[in-house]
């Protein structure tokens, strides 16, 4: 059967937008190269026309230049057409990518919406309000307990403020007296200059005959030992 009808050929995959864009860009580069060569040739003809005198030779150069200029215009038209095709393909590519992004966004939103519904079904707003009320009551009870535990039992409520101020003044006076008694005693304090003067008035040393009399009354010297 295959020999009679032939085998079924596999279809080639359709070109993508990127494939078409790449192919057109390659063609555009080839056309740009051709236009550059034609520009260089026109520049040479332009110089020849300037150097050539009017006449048949100059007219021949002008004819060749016109032919090259027509080719350049044709290639420029093709290049503009390919640029327009590339622009259209880019627009289609941007639109396609935008639609793909929108599709992914919608899928993500649907998944998130489904997940949120599952979570909210497990939660009840009345239970949350009840829990919040219980928490507020527990906080109030805790405050009352702390206030009760911090109450003082040794201070009566009927104390006179004037009486307290009098006791405070007496306490300050006692503290001042203790400070004065804790000062350095008088025998350790440095004495003033006029207090030391009487003690420093000692009798003068004897001189002359008085000194000789004292030497006569003195004891004889101790003899030295001879070894």
TrEMBL record:
Q: Where is this region: Disordered?
A: 174-227
Give the record's keywords alphabetically.
Coiled coil
Check the record and name the InterPro entries matching this protein: Snf7_fam
Which Pfam family, giving just one, matches this sequence? Answer: Snf7
Q: Does the keyword Cytoplasm apply?
A: no
The residue ranges crossing the membrane are: none
Name-wise, this protein is Uncharacterized protein
Organism encoding this protein: Spirodela intermedia
């Amino acid at each position: 059967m295959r020999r009679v009808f032939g085998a079924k050929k596999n279809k080639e995959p359709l070109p993508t937008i990127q494939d078409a864009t790449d192919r057109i860009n390659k063609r555009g580069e080839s056309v740009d190269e051709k236009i550059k060569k034609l520009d260089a040739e026109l520049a040479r003809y332009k110089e020849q026309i300037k150097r050539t005198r009017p006449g048949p030779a100059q007219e021949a150069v002008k004819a060749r230049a016109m032919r090259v200029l027509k080719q350049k215009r044709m290639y420029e038209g093709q290049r503009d057409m390919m640029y327009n095709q590339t622009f259209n393909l880019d627009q289609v590519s941007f639109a396609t990518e935008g639609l793909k992004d929108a599709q992914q966004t919608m899928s993500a939103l649907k998944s998130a919406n489904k997940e949120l519904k599952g979570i909210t079904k497990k939660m009840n707003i009345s239970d949350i309000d009840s829990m919040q009320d219980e928490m507020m009551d527990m906080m109030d009870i805790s405050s009352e307990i702390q206030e009760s535990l911090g109450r003082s039992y040794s201070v009566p409520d009927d104390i006179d403020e004037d009486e307290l101020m009098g006791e405070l003044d007496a306490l300050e006076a006692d503290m001042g007296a203790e400070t004065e008694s804790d000062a350095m005693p008088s025998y350790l304090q440095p004495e003033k200059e006029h207090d030391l003067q009487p003690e420093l008035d000692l009798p003068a040393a004897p001189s002359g005959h008085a000194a000789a009399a004292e030497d006569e009354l003195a004891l004889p010297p101790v003899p030295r030992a001879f070894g």
